[in-house]
Request: fold
Amino acid sequence: MIKDEIRQFITEKFLFNSDDPPDDDVSLLEMNIVDSVGILEIVSFLESHFQIKVEDEELTAANLDSINKITSFIEKKRG
Amino acid sequence: MIEINLAKEFSYELLSLDCQQETACLTAFISETLTSRLRKQGAVVGLSGGIDSSVTAALCVRALGPDKVIGLLMPERTSHPDTLRLSQLVGESLKIKTILREITPILSGLNFYQEMTSCLRELVPEYSEDWKWKISASELTEERIFTFFWLVVQSPGGEIIKKRLPAETLRRIIALSNFRQRVRKMLEYHYADRFNYAVAGTSNLLEIDQGFFVKLGDGAGDFKPLAHLYKTQVYQLAEYLELPETITSRQPTADIHPLAQGQDEFFFLLPYKEMDACLYGEKNGFSPESVARATGLAEDKVRLAYKQIAHRRNSNAYLRLNPLVIEEK
Reply:
């Protein structure tokens, strides 16, 4: 499931596999889970893992700032 | 989080310094710090030709005398030609001893140039060492408070190629670029050890608050006389200290990448004067509306600047931390 894969990546990469992953609606930036480069790491993961191309104009908080937002973005990209 | 007080009205007057008093306070701080706390016999300042290092050196001269201050000039082969010319000018105008240490051979020994070229070629295969390049940051928008970056390269013929930087390449470029600031600081400490001097840090409040410095690079120092001053205040001091006009009228440049760029294109989202106003307003509880009135910026832009200032301060907090240890019980 897309959401599980995204959650797993974020938990592994930024939270040292914490047993307490962030809520799916939590802002990754506001909670300081990722910084600007962290967002780019998520983008690199999304592009390689889901075989998509993220355009400059799609680099927005609305698409990338929570697990739920990222999931919706990927679902939309994949049609 | 600071509470916003709608009754307070921001004005640039709030950033206005009594330069005579400030200089007296800073020179007392420097001489007291060196003699009583650090027990050093003088100060080493890395001169870049920029406003911060020039003012720092001038304050050290006022506090200690010109014979107790050494200016280090440390260009490398991709530095802007102004870097050496202007830092020599500052050294001459302050009548201090300067030591020229070209850092190109040290960087070559670290494989800096070769690795940087191979890193840039991953994105732009036609890139070669006679091309110029820079990293350009995305603009701040309502939809995005984080930043992404483009690599911009320019061929000798003037052709420009722009590619978005993936995280991995960006981290490699940052890690390599930071060699320059760390090599310079290593040399500053070398000469400090040699003469029993202290190293003057040159960061100002805006840079420290927002994390625009390299940890153990330009962010390091034994004392930092400008750490409480906004950039506009550093310019006020520069005029009061009668630094050469070419220094006081020069716009801040990053001089990090070979292709020319201002600091606001690389790191800060606004020119320094507006950036100072937004930072002062955000830190001291002034409403975005009030800062917008004084600066002429749109209210939305100030509101966004407040958000990004807070975000950067938090995400770069680790840069300001000393090594963490278990606290004694």
Summary: The mean pLDDT of chain B is 93.
